[in-house]
Design a protein that fits this description.
mainly alpha, 76% helix, globular, 270 residues, 15 helices, 0% strand
Length: 270
């Protein structure tokens, strides 16, 4: 969420409502598992985004070191708390903690937190096998996963956000002289927009596979209960804010990372 977006959100959500204090916001992060969602971005960055026109693997251990610095977990949590204090009303914090603090909510958080510690390759492989089985035995379960995704922003929002992050990352990489490609921002946006359908399909597929993996131990009734909780208007406001915070932190860090790529020395195997 850019500075302007934070200001707008503060007007929309906070003008007539009391914002949560910092300690309550920190408790919210722990209860909901959003702290793990934020800090796990470091691992993703260390694996390399591969969107700068050069292979991050070429930088070897230097890439890992820089990613660890830029995506420092404690700093990302503090930035999250800063934005929550600015735009997250106490009413929405309470609503989120009421559900995720419940017995079902805590089991969901435990499963989601564990999922962040599993490699994407494993989640996708095992999730695909589960979805293949569900398609024959329980197709309604797949429909529930799609409804859950739609309730918290959906594929379209994720696609727009990722394209924006790619633009910020690649513009910073080009400005730093760390990319082999050179486009204007308008040209870059046009190129990425032409790939948006393919990106959306990939996001949709990975989302279904990921949900199938993470929630495999939950009953159909529990998945339906979760979907209904996510469709609650207040919970949708919670996720609107959380998604904005997560994408802003991600975009800011990748932009910073790209700007510092020129400081790295490509490594080669001997």
């Amino acid at each position: 969420m850019t500075g302007a977006a934070v200001a707008v959100a503060a007007i929309c959500f906070g003008a007539a409502l009391v914002a949560a204090d910092r300690e309550t916001s920190r408790e919210f992060l722990e209860v909901t598992g959003f702290d793990v969602a934020i800090t796990s971005m470091q691992e993703g960055a260390m694996n390399g985004p591969g969107i700068a026109g050069a292979d991050p693997d070429a930088f070897g251990s230097e890439w890992v070191r820089l990613s660890e610095q830029v995506f420092d977990p404690d700093a990302m949590i503090e930035d999250t708390l800063d934005m929550m204090e600015a735009i997250m009303p106490q009413e929405l914090v309470d609503h989120g903690m009421d559900f995720y603090g419940s017995e079902l909510g805590q089991r969901l958080v435990e499963a989601e937190n564990a999922g962040h510690g599993v490699s994407n390759e494993r989640q996708m492989a095992e999730g695909e096998m589960i979805v293949t089985r569900l398609a024959d035995e329980n197709p309604d379960r797949i429909k529930e996963y799609r409804k859950m995704s739609a309730a918290i922003g959906g594929v379209e929002q994720s696609t727009r956000a990722i394209i924006e992050i790619q633009v910020r990352y690649m513009m910073a990489a080009m400005a730093a002289g760390a990319s082999d490609i050179q486009y204007s921002e308008a040209e870059l946006r046009e190129i990425l927009s032409q790939q948006s359908d393919q990106l959306a399909n990939a996001i949709s597929t990975s989302g279904i596979f990921g949900s199938a993996y993470v929630y495999q131990s939950f009953s159909d009734e529990e998945v339906v209960a979760y979907r209904k909780a996510l469709e609650d208007p207040q919970m949708q406001q919670v996720y609107e804010i959380l998604n904005g915070i997560q994408y802003e932190i991600m975009g800011d860090r990748y932009e910073t990372l790209a700007a510092r790529l020129a400081d790295l020395s490509p490594q080669t195997d001997i």
